[in-house]
Structure formats: C-alpha cells, structure tokens
Amino acid sequence: MNPWPRQYDVRKVHMGRASEGADLLNMLNEVCREREIRAGAVSLVGAVSCAVLMYYRQETKRYETLPEITQGMEIIAGTGNVSLKDGAPFVHLHLLLADEQGQTVAGHLAEGTIVFACEYTITELDGPALERAHDGDTGLYLWRG
User: Fold this and answer.
1) Number of domains, the chain
2) CATH of residue 19
3) In a domain, 141, yes or no
4) Res 129 pLDDT > 90
5) For 84-123, how does the pLDDT look when each residue is reduced to its tens digit (9 = 90+)?
6) Phi and psi for 141 in degrees, rounded to 5?
7) pLDDT tens-digit series, residues 40-53
8) Measured distance CA(52)–CA(36) in Å, rounded
9) Would you state the pLDDT for residue 145?
10) Does some domain include residue 140?
11) Which residue segment(s) compose the domain that 101 sits in?
12) Number of Cβ within a 10 Å radius of residue 90
C-alpha cells in the first residue's frame, strides 16, 4: 500500500517575527527545534538584507549556490515544510525575492540569508513525524514512506 498522501490535522499554529540580522534558515530551524515540531508547513513574508539561494541540478544531483544577493530584497513568498532529518527538525524552504524594480529571483533557502524584517507562520501538524531519508534515484533527502 502506498503511504502517500498522508492526512494530518492542525495541531498548533506558531507565528513570530524574526530579529533583524538573524540568519533566516538557522532561526527557523531553531524555532522548530525549541518547539519540537516534527511535521509542519512554513510560510513567511518580509525582507532580507542579503540572500544565499541554491538550485538543484538534476543531471549532477548536486545543489549549486546561485550568485549571492548582496542588496536588500523583498520576500514575495517563502514556502516550505518541516520534517525530521537525522532525527532533528529540518526546514526545507524556497524563497521568491524581488528588487526595487520588481525583478525576481528564487531558489532553495541556504544559510547566509540575513533578515531585515520577517514575519513567519509555522503550522504544526498532528500525526506521525515526516522523516527524510536519502533517495538514490534523485540524490535528494525526501520523505520516506
């Protein structure tokens, strides 16, 4: 029997504001560790003073870091999830950013993305933990069944 899709109920909604100067990814992971979130959804809006994004190249099965963004950008959308990787809460998040002309760049959030202002919502799900394991076909750490 295929274990997907799974059904979850909402356990709790955590809303917060990130401190200016915080590393966005590290801050989100810390919130999830402190609250012991094992399955969830993440969304956020705000702005960053600089950003590090990645792209997963399917041919080589490796993440490549995109050129570093060294200017302030608006967070148009941040969306992702929370699961367990190696037994610890792990945030997987994609960001869509826009500059002062509305030009956008997007990618997989990496450490080194620094918050200017950010409001986040983490919807904690009630049910079995989502756990990540290495998938040999894609090279990614995906939810295991």
Assistant:
1) 1
2) 3.30.1330.80
3) no
4) yes
5) 999 999 999 999 999 999 999 999 999 999 999 999 999 9
6) -95, 105
7) 999 999 999 999 99
8) 26
9) 77
10) no
11) 9-127
12) 19
User: What pLDDT does residue 101 have?
Assistant: 97
Over the chain, what HEC string results? CCCCCCCCEEEEEEEEEECCCCEHHHHHHHHHHHCCCCCEEEEEEEEEEEECEEEEECCCCEEEECCCECCCEEEEEEEEEEEEECCEEEEEEEEEEECCCCCEEEEEECCCCEEEEEEEEEEEEECCCCEEEECCCCCCEEECC
Whether 107 contacts 54, CB under 8 Å: yes
* Residue 132 lies inside a defined structural domain of this protein: no
pTM strictly above 0.85 = yes
Residue 142 to residues 90, 126, 132, 137, Cα–Cα distance (Å): 12, 20, 5, 11
- Which two structure tokens, joined as six digits, stand for 112? 């080194």
Is residue 51 situated within a structural domain? yes
